[in-house]
Design a protein that fits this description.
By secondary structure, the protein is an alpha+beta fold. Helices cover about 25% and strands about 25% of the residues. The chain has a 6-stranded antiparallel sheet with strand order 7-4-5-6-3-8. A hairpin with a 2-residue loop joins strand 14 and strand 15.
Length: about 425
């Protein structure tokens, strides 16, 4: 730091005063100050350009890579809406039978768990075919959406972008029905499903959307070799529209580097190749008919303090910062932190207030095993104020907050308590 900000002009002025001969001092001043001034200015400019390039590569603004999800009826899907795209393209095709399509359960966390447990246990969901035959269905979460999230996580890792928990509130509520006797027994027949107490919460014909678009891109200028190895860099120009871009790496793609309005892909091959880029749309979400369901996002409310903490890599260290962090992650839900405490690992949640819902930050569980398979960590217990919210997604919002906090407090197992209002 001293070398970078060294005051060479002041230093030369002080040393010139040590020369007693005025003619020699005048000659030295012209040589050192006027002659070398341009050299020093050129060196400072080059150093500044190098510093800015490094910062652009390692300090990408997070807001370019926020992931949003929502749901829409298939008949209302708008293909010309450039912001929203299907999580799975296959969802746009209507299945031959309604029971073959994923159903969406608009219910709170407790009801979703009960529905999944019932469908997986002895009390499987029943249906009646057109011919009057009773059929039993097992219930399981739609695995294709979890697979899509694992692929997204791999894209972030391969492109060198820090991963942030994606809000899974909508995707976790899609379920598939699997007939116990095999699909062949009822293929071609409509089935009336007996949903029981979940009748009002089950929605059919819905598909999930997110703000990620897959596009094909090819380099737009001739490749040039790297200096360190026999490697080649290919440049892909990007639109400067505030959107984030992820590259599908693997094969001969070794690494990805971002510059201003461009992506540089390093490979071992000379030939230009088309790669798949995933564009994360930000900003205007468009105005399409039927797009009225809640939007869940892992975007953060921007504060000066939040920007500074993310830039320096500091963790939360004070109660005030913890309250601010919860507000930053609460999104459109007025969720506030009422308090927190640390409990021993052996403290069973069964002993706590039954009127409160016990929630866990587990929205990242789909992409790998637990870091602590025999979890003996102390419990970091958060209590939340929800202003008596009746929305069935508010507990999912708390789980999302806990999932983000869990990434920052790995030494604890993060749990949350919130009043249970039913769903």
């Amino acid at each position: 730091m001293e070398e970078k900000y060294f005051d060479y002009e002041g230093y030369i002025q002080r040393r010139l005063k040590e020369i007693d001969d005025l003619d020699e001092r005048r000659y030295a001043k012209e040589l050192l100050l006027e002659g070398l001034k341009g050299v020093f200015a050129w060196a400072e400019a080059k150093y500044g350009n190098l510093e800015r390039r490094i910062q652009e590569e390692i300090d990408l603004p997070w807001e370019r890579f926020a992931v949003c999800t929502t749901i829409v009826e298939r008949k209302n899907y708008d293909p010309i809406n450039s912001f929203w795209h299907p999580v799975c393209e296959g969802d746009l095709e209507k299945k031959e039978n309604s029971w073959m399509e994923a159903i969406y359960l608009a219910a709170d966390e407790r009801s979703c768990r009960e529905f999944l447990e019932k469908g997986c246990g002895s009390g499987a969901v029943e249906g009646i075919t057109e011919s009057g035959v009773r059929v039993r269905f097992r219930v399981k979460r739609a695995a294709r959406y979890e697979e899509g999230m694992r692929k997204l996580h791999a894209l972030f890792s391969g492109s060198g972008i820090p991963w942030q928990t994606v809000h899974m509130g909508h995707l976790e509520r899609f379920f598939d029905l699997v007939p116990e006797d095999g699909e062949e027994a009822i293929m071609g027949e409509e089935v009336r499903i007996l949903w029981g107490k979940w009748e009002t919460g089950v929605k059919q014909g819905l598909i999930p959307l997110w703000n990620i678009e897959c596009i094909e891109a090819e380099p737009q200028e001739y490749r040039y070799p790297c200096l360190d190895e026999v490697l080649y860099e290919h440049v892909y120009y990007l639109k400067d529209d505030g959107d984030g871009y992820l590259a599908e790496t693997g094969g001969d793609i070794l690494s990805v580097r971002y510059g201003k309005n461009e992506m540089v892909v390093k490979t071992r091959t000379e030939e230009q190749k088309i790669i798949s880029l995933y564009r994360l749309h930000q900003g205007n979400r468009g105005d399409s008919y039927g797009y009225s369901h809640p939007v869940l996002s892992n975007g953060k409310e921007e504060h000066l303090a939040a920007r500074y903490l993310r830039r320096t890599g500091n963790f939360i260290q004070t109660p005030l910062e913890l309250h601010r962090r919860v507000e930053e992650l609460s999104g459109d839900y007025p969720i506030r932190l009422a308090g927190y405490e640390i409990r021993a690992a052996g403290d069973s949640p069964k002993d706590w207030d039954e009127m409160e819902e016990i929630l866990e930050g587990d929205m990242d569980a789909y992409y790998g095993s637990q870091v602590f398979p025999r979890d003996k960590r102390s419990l970091l217990l958060f209590r939340f104020e929800t202003n008596n919210i009746k929305d069935y997604l508010y507990e999912s919002q708390i789980r999302y907050i806990l999932s983000q906090l869990q990434r920052e407090f790995l030494e604890y197992r993060c749990l949350g308590l919130a009043p249970h209002h039913g769903g």
